[in-house]
Inverse folding.
């Protein structure tokens, strides 16, 4: 694994290009919004792309056909926030932390899945970017937030 300064915005664009076919096949709206031209983090670029693909694929699988999945990047002073938001069924509060466990699956959601998506995402975040990941239910849907330190903040330490 190679950890280098990596532009999260560019990696996200490449990741979304690789899953746009799945979104189209499911008749879903896949969007991208960012407040930053660049957000350079210290991470393995390939693993970071895998993380984004994994999160978006997970959202596309659990959101009903015709739904919306939105990827966003916001750059702060010391870190960058990557969000993947959908309008699917969401996750009950009592199960929110468990979805990051391997093979944990919420029963009755109807999605075909290995139940590894969010656990793999958590492992990638912790291993390659020393960041954090969390999930929050919305009125309708879910938002997964990944916080990554900017390369400039890491260099100051």
């Amino acid at each position: 694994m190679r950890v280098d300064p990596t532009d999260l915005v560019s990696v996200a664009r490449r990741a979304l290009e690789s899953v746009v076919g799945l979104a189209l096949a499911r008749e879903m709206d896949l969007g991208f919004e960012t407040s930053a031209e660049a957000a350079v983090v210290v991470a393995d670029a390939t693993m970071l792309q895998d993380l984004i693909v994994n999160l978006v694929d997970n959202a596309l699988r659990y959101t009903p056909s015709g739904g919306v999945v939105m990827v966003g990047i916001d750059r702060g002073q010391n870190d960058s926030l990557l969000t993947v938001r959908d309008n699917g069924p969401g996750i009950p509060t009592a199960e929110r932390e468990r979805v990051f466990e391997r093979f944990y699956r919420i029963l009755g959601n109807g999605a075909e899945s290995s139940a590894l998506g969010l656990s793999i995402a958590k492992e990638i975040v912790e291993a390659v970017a020393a960041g954090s990941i969390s999930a929050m239910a919305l009125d309708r849907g879910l938002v997964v937030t990944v916080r990554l330190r900017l390369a400039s903040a890491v260099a100051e330490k």
The helical segments are 8-25, 45-62, 117-128, 151-156.
